[in-house]
Write a structure and sequence with these properties.
The protein is of the alpha+beta class. It folds into two domains: 17-162; 169-368. 32% of the residues lie in helices and 20% in strands. The protein has eleven helices and 13 strands. It has helices at 17-33, 36-56, 65-69, 73-78, 83-89, 95-106, 114-124, 127-140, 143-149, 182-185, 267-279, and strands at 151-152, 161-162, 169-175, 191-192, 210-216, 230-235, 242-248, 254-261, 286-292, 310-314, 335-341, 351-357, 362-368. The strands form three sheets. It has a nine-stranded antiparallel sheet, with no helix packed on it. A hairpin with a 4-residue loop joins β12 (351-357) and β13. α5 (83-89) packs across α7, α6 packs parallel to α8 and α8 crosses α9 (143-149). The chain is globular. The chain starts with 16 loop residues before the first helix and ends with a strand.
Length: 371
């Protein structure tokens, strides 16, 4: 069963528009009646249902878009979904929804936590919604809220700009035959576990100890055009809480690297990671398969990582656990390409994300601890 609600209290069909409508009514009823102890578990189950609907059949939610925007603050607290759930439910909602959300956000006596309404507004993605985000952010100085969700606000009345693609795929690791020569592995579209010398030259290579993955950008939908075609998620000998900015050449090689560290690092740990990189350099090699968000995946707790071999996503919004990086050259928010867990190829702990600036040949690998 692809849908496995995490709270374990509720499992309803979502195959038709009528099913989704019945689920919505059930959620409204639960928001009123469920007891304190069971409320969170019901809430988790309801979100998992809607996360699944967003992936498989978002069209069944369309008739409810206007209704959900009009819910009271109390009801919306029960629908406190993550941004990545709203994103696929409210996509392309009518302009009246964006206008209504903007009015609610600007009203002084708002009855609802602004973070819920902000995520809903950002999820719509139409020109009207992107203009409403800019207006709201400028009036309230809340540009950071949208930057954490993956939107760039150029300012001066210009619309918000999404810096991620809605087209998402789950990333499945496929081990390779250990006799496959590295020269063959590097030709695969999305190799995992390449030697650093394959993806970086001096002086960048001296900063990099680990290769998680390489992505062939031509095989990912919805990216801005770039003059490089493959980018690499890599690590310095640091545990988590860092961003490594690399300049990439047109031959897809990292040439310069600059490390920004946001958490204090333990020196002993750094040495350990240097040694680990040498000792395990031949481990965990393979390639990635990009799987569509369909009924072959497991949907639970707002992600698909309980699917066998799946470690994260290509596409979709950034996690926002750490500040999303801005380009060190033009200062624009960088474009999010993928986020995976370190279980993909064990090195350090937590999530690793990959971003680029298409205009400045800059790539950022970012490391966050488990949230
Ligand atoms: Zn730039």
């Amino acid at each position: 069963m692809p849908l496995q609600p995490n709270g374990g209290k509720l499992l309803m069909p979502v195959e038709t528009e009528a099913d989704v409508c019945a689920l919505f009514e059930k959620a409204l009823a639960l928001s009123q009646t469920s007891g304190f102890l069971t409320r969170d578990r019901y809430r988790a189950d309801i979100e998992d249902h809607f996360y699944y609907i967003g992936a498989i059949c978002p069209q069944h939610f369309r008739p409810l878009q206007q209704e959900v925007v009009n819910l009271s603050g109390e009801q919306l607290t029960f629908f406190h979904f993550s941004f990545s759930t709203w994103l696929y439910l409210l996509h392309d909602a009518p302009d009246s929804c964006a206008e209504q959300l903007l009015q609610r956000l600007l009203r002084a006596d708002q009855d609802c936590s602004p973070s819920i309404l902000e995520a809903m507004l950002a999820a719509i993605g139409t020109p009207t919604a992107l203009a409403a985000m800019a207006e709201y952010a400028e009036r309230t100085h809340k540009q950071n809220v949208f930057r954490d969700l993956g939107f760039w606000l150029p300012g001066k009345g210009k619309r918000a700009e999404p810096r991620f693609t809605r087209h998402r795929s789950a990333v499945r690791f496929q081990p390779i035959d250990t006799t496959l020569p590295l020269q063959e592995l590097v030709k695969r579209p999305h190799p995992v576990g390449l030697p650093v010398s394959f993806i970086a030259g001096e002086p960048a290579s001296s900063m990099i100890t680990w290769h998680y993955l390489t992505l062939d950008l031509a095989r990912i939908d919805g990216l801005p055009p770039t003059s490089f075609s493959r980018i690499h998620l890599v690590s310095p000998p640091q545990h988590s809480g860092w961003t490594l900015f690399c300049t990439i050449s047109q031959q897809n090689l990292y040439t310069q690297a600059h490390l920004h560290v946001s958490e204090d690092q333990d020196l002993e740990m750094l040495e350990q990671l240097q040694e680990q990189a040498i000792e395990h350099q031949n481990d965990g090699r393979g390639e990635l398969l990009l799987l569509p968000y369909d009924d072959q995946l497991v949907y639970r707790n707002g992600h698909t990582q309980l699917t066998k071999g799946v470690h994260g996503d290509v596409g979709g919004p950034p996690l926002g656990l750490d500040e999303n990086p801005c380009c060190p050259i033009c200062k624009k928010l960088m474009f999010h390409v993928c986020t995976v867990a370190t279980t993909l190829r064990e090195y350090g702990d937590g999530f690793r994300s990959l971003f680029f600036c298409e205009g400045c040949m800059q790539i950022a690998s970012q490391a966050m601890g488990w949230n």
